[in-house]
Design a protein that fits this description.
The chain has about 325 residues and is mainly beta. The protein has a single domain, classed as Autotransporter beta-domain (Lipocalin), CATH 2.40.128. It is built from 2 helices and 17 strands. Strand 13 and strand 14 form a beta hairpin. The longest helix has 15 residues. It is globular, with a radius of gyration of 20 Å.
């Protein structure tokens, strides 16, 4: 309970900060698009704080909302090549916010609640749920768009650099490491982890292209276990269609990838951990006045996770935001 209070207080303080006022006309808001963020999940279920899914939508500079993330995997129920496959479902419900602080500083915060499940070959099931690891980030806008009209007549560039912390507000259960090739079936990493992030975007009229990358440095927890550092990157394109003065639809398409170092336990590498994956992605965001609804889905193009003993099947996310 103490962890929940601390994490929620940090999020509440972030939300209370006064940022730029978003106008009632979303066309004016959308004209200040810096870039799209991406619905990328960690292959680590315990990292459902959204670190690799992006910490904002890019369309709404000042918002508070809720986002659901679903990740679907299968993994070997055992250490042998002929061990049976089991289905694993990682589910995350996030309270998230993105608020400008002044003209060039952006604050992002994510507070997740996780509920995961998996079914073993003997038909028994395991369920875990609870608060996940909260994240607090700050970005500095090195380049900032200054469009000369609602739909700018020349390309506009944005570059954001930042970083922050992921707090161990989620529970790490050492028992979930035993007899499983997927040690990521956790609510949290149990460690203070640190994130470095960069976002670049260019928009021209109602078209946009964006590139993002973030790197998470993971520390050892009090059980002497350390999840591997991870790199996430993505390239995305989008186009906004204006349907009246208060309504806009923005479809998106892109690709993205993830790379994970091996985990360590007592400073020794854990076998069958680490790997990489490449995804395709389709999504859409609908804006009506100060409200926004977003959907996206992801499918793997190539993957090699945990020495082939873990496979991602698909990912899905939906969010609903209110511009402040």
């Amino acid at each position: 309970m103490k962890k929940f209070i601390v994490a929620f207080a940090l999020l509440a303080v972030t939300i209370s900060l006064k940022g730029n006022v978003v106008p009632d006309d979303p066309l004016n808001c959308t004209s200040h698009v810096s870039l799209f963020y991406y619905d990328f999940c960690d292959t680590c279920g315990c990292s459902g704080n959204g670190g690799s899914m992006g910490f904002g939508t890019g369309l709404n500079n000042n918002f508070i909302g809720i986002r659901y993330i679903g990740q679907y995997y299968r993994s070997r129920d055992g250490i042998f090549a002929n061990s049976p496959w089991i289905d694993e479902n990682f589910n995350t419900l996030q309270l998230w916010t993105q608020i400008p602080l002044g003209k060039r500083i952006i604050i992002n915060a994510v507070l997740p609640y996780q509920f995961h499940s998996r079914e073993f070959a003997n038909t028994t099931e395991q369920h875990i749920d609870g608060l996940g690891d909260a994240t607090l980030l700050g970005f500095y806008q090195v380049l900032k768009q200054t469009p000369d009209s609602i739909v700018s007549i020349k390309p506009e560039h944005t570059l954001q650099l930042g970083g922050g912390v992921k707090m161990p507000t989620g529970t790490f259960d050492e028992a979930n490491l035993e007899g499983s090739v997927n040690p990521s079936f956790q609510l949290g990493t149990g460690s203070w982890d640190y994130v470095l992030a960069a976002n670049y975007g260019v928009t021209h009229r109602n078209w946009g292209l964006s590139l993002m990358a973030n790197y998470t440095v993971k520390a050892k927890n009090d059980k002497e276990y350390r999840f591997g550092n991870q790199l996430n990157y993505a390239l995305n394109t989008f186009k906004t269609y204006y349907l009246g003065t208060n309504f806009a639809i923005t479809p998106q398409a892109g690709i993205g990838g993830e790379y994970f170092d091996k985990n360590e336990e007592f400073d020794l590498e854990v076998t069958d951990t680490g790997g990489n994956a490449l995804f395709s992605r389709l999504g859409i965001e609908v804006n009506y006045r100060q409200y926004a609804l977003g959907l996206s889905s992801m499918l793997p193009l190539a993957q090699d996770l945990n020495n082939g003993k873990v496979e991602v099947k698909s990912r899905f996310s939906i969010y609903a935001n209110i511009n402040l």
